[in-house]
TrEMBL record, chains A, B:
Keyword Cytoplasm: no
Record keywords: DNA-binding, Transcription, Transcription regulation
SUPFAM superfamilies assigned: Winged helix' DNA-binding domain
Record carries keyword Transcription: yes
GO terms assigned for molecular function: DNA binding; DNA-binding transcription factor activity
Superkingdom field: Bacteria
Domain HTH marR-type: 1-132
A Pfam family that the UniProt record links to this protein: HTH_27
Protein name (record): Putative HTH-type transcriptional regulator
Amino acid sequence: MEGLFRHYIRTHRLLMKHLNDLLEKYQLSYSLWQVIVYLKDSGTSTLVDISNYYQVEKPGITRRVRRLQESGLIKEVPSTNRREKIIELTSEGKRVYQVCREEITALEHSISEGLTEEEKQIAFQFLMKIQDNILSKEGFRSE
Amino acid sequence: MEGLFRHYIRTHRLLMKHLNDLLEKYQLSYSLWQVIVYLKDSGTSTLVDISNYYQVEKPGITRRVRRLQESGLIKEVPSTNRREKIIELTSEGKRVYQVCREEITALEHSISEGLTEEEKQIAFQFLMKIQDNILSKEGFRSE
DNA sequence: GGTTAATAGTTACTCTTGTTAATTATGTGT
DNA sequence: ACACATAATTAACAAGAGTAACTATTAACC
């Protein structure tokens, strides 16, 4: 299968460009969107949780969270633990999530046009398999 | 197909990390590797050709080419046209290409382990279809 | 043929994102 | 009580991409 990964990476660039164009309208980027999605799913979270989930170093998450806090999309939840910072979406954050979610879903549909459910299913399995293989490779060198 | 694109992007991060780790051993990165691959396929090229192919702005290509020239992997080809710069791989560049090519192919195989040719074929078609859809979307807004 | 317009490449600057290392503050375990 | 681990932050740095402005050269056209 010649060129599979090359096309994978090439397509990624195109996709990200569209996603970021879309999110830019809301003063967001994909990296900020990831935090929003994570909070939408988890309700509340610490920064370390997000760091582990996306495998991004903590300083990166600190920056993302600061920017989202500044734009009023997330807020800190009062907690007895004064070491960790627990955050959640504000109501404005939830609203923005909904709006973007719809736009992104529409984009995804238009991009998947002409593909059958079965093809998408196999593509999904392909991704999961690759992910597994990479992660198990990493496991062997103890990461 | 819920989460298809999320997984796509997530997997991309993992993949790039491995590719860059591999290329780092040769003082390369994926962005430099792209130029090498393009020159391997095309023989000679101008900077604008590369810029168009990868859809990266010209200053980015200028930077990549400068770095590759400094490390002696590409060189300028004498030409009558003094406006455009025609470049090609040096013999050292071709040697490095071969070495990296083998390593990358091995990495790709290990990452694709457990997938049938048919599955890879469908995944490839999936990527091509997405690419087409995105590009035709762009076409409509005249890019 | 000479002026105008387009093109190739570069430079300077900015932005986003990510990394490592060091620091502070707080919590846990023994 | 003390040593150790953990959460978060700051600072410094690097890779990569983008825009705008500029130079030099070529192509186009009247």
